[in-house]
Write a structure and sequence with these properties.
Blueprint (H helix, E strand, L loop, with lengths): L1 H14 L8 E12 L4 E10 L2 E10 L6 E6 L2 H13 L6 E4 L7 E12 L2 E10 L3 H4 L2 H17 L3
Parallel strand pairs: 5-7
Antiparallel strand pairs: 1-2, 1-6, 2-3, 3-4, 6-7
Helix pairs in contact: 2-4
Length: about 160
Amino acid sequence: MKSILYLSLLLSLAAAPVNKSPDLHISITLTRSEHSKDSNSTQTTITLSSNKLVYDETHHGFHARPPVHKERTLTTEEISELKRLIKEKNLLKSKMSKYPPGNVPYALYDLTVEIRWQGKRSLLRISGPTNSDEMTNSRLYQETDNLIEEITVLANRD
């Protein structure tokens, strides 16, 4: 009887996926840079894999500040809220918008968001000058900004 039990246990373990991919994966890279005589940039990198959120921010150039690093395990409710936002904003469709920079001096915004969820993968890209009303009023900018804002709030929770 024990051998049948061991055999059935072994078979059930063999049928289980060995390397199950995370249900939700989000990777965000945002660079904000100023091109002027006092050039500087801030790069924000956010990764959510499974339920682990990693938030990094680095500053370069004039008036650079110390880097920021935060790690946090998200609750099931927090992940559900992110999934709702992704679905509501239709962020599982790849989209891209690029706006030309103006004259120097100017500040640039360069964002790449990769989302993998439900067997789908989307790539969202937007870049252009921060003083561009066309860019900041675009649907893609506002939708990705909502996602970044939500994740930043989660990263800063204690």
